[in-house]
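can u pls check wat happens w/ AHG
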Amino acid sequence: MSQKIVTVQRHVLEAQQQHPEATGDLTGLLWDLILAAKVISCQVNKAGLAQILGLTGSHNVHGDEVTKLDVFANDVIYRAMDHGGHLCVMASEEADDIIPIPSRFSKGKYVLLFDPLDGSSNIDANVSVGTIFSIYRKKTLGSDGTVEDCLRKGIEQVVAGYIVYGSSTVLVYSAGYGVHGFTLDPAIGEFLLSHPDIKTPKKGKIYSVNEGNVLQWDEGTRKYINYLKEDDAATGRPYSARYVGSLVADFHRNLLYGGIFLYPAGHKKGKDKPQGKLRLLYEASPLAFLVEQAGGMATTGRERILEIEPEHLHQRVPLIIGSEQDVQQYLGFLNQG
Ligand code: AHG
Ligand code: MN
Ligand code: MN
């Protein structure tokens, strides 16, 4: 029997109908976001042709170079989301502070956090990039959202997801009832259900890490990576190394195939505390929500990502995420030191 054709809009709507108390606000919010994703996808696919290729020469708050497509994606999401009446505030990896909803528009009860274009340094080489998003319910009183509404533990997320602009454009989301993937058919402009109820394998055969940083890692991480390279058919080793350098693309592959992604803390010269690179609110938390929904795990090595109380908007954390048995095994190595 062939599979039913289901658009992401219908999928979201049917999920909403399971909840008689739902007002339709979240559904409306997601539809606006899906529109933004289609616009960004279209532009990413034209990147090699568009004059906007290249760097602006400016840097974002993390000190990274900002390509014009980052700015474009950020702007598209803002313009698709500011006037729908569903949001009270937004925050983006590309903006220093929270992004208020203009006073002329009505405010809603949701908060949107996003990384508009993850892996953007890869664009010039035609490597996959993505958009990551995270939605919370407003918690403060009053109609305007505040920074407090954005500094939230990942377990409080209402929806998390990403769009990966790869060999095709795929949207993956979870509203806390499993993880579902949709592939964009560019001819009809619709995301169609292609990966219902994704479960990540309990154990994989892939590890994804920037091994150039090996000298900055702690002993446990080094021993773990060396262990994965040993030859032992009984335990499925050696693992294969796969690292694109776009978190969203590395995560998506490992979610489907199983395995482990690591961006551990680095002990950099001149820095007193070891630091991770990836951002808690825009990258780690939403992907942790998805991986747990798919049966996997996400940790800093010390704590569950979803339980971290954020201190500031652009906080970075170590991120170890993937198949449950692989992450557990990593923790075992880390605890042995
Ligand atoms: P962004 O493009 O949003 O700044 O994120 C880049 C991130 C992430 O996508 C990727 O996993 C990581 O940077 C790669 O870092 P390294 O180049 O240090 O490996
Ligand atoms: Mn990113
Ligand atoms: Mn980014």
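The CA atoms of residues 200 and 256 lie 6 Å apart.
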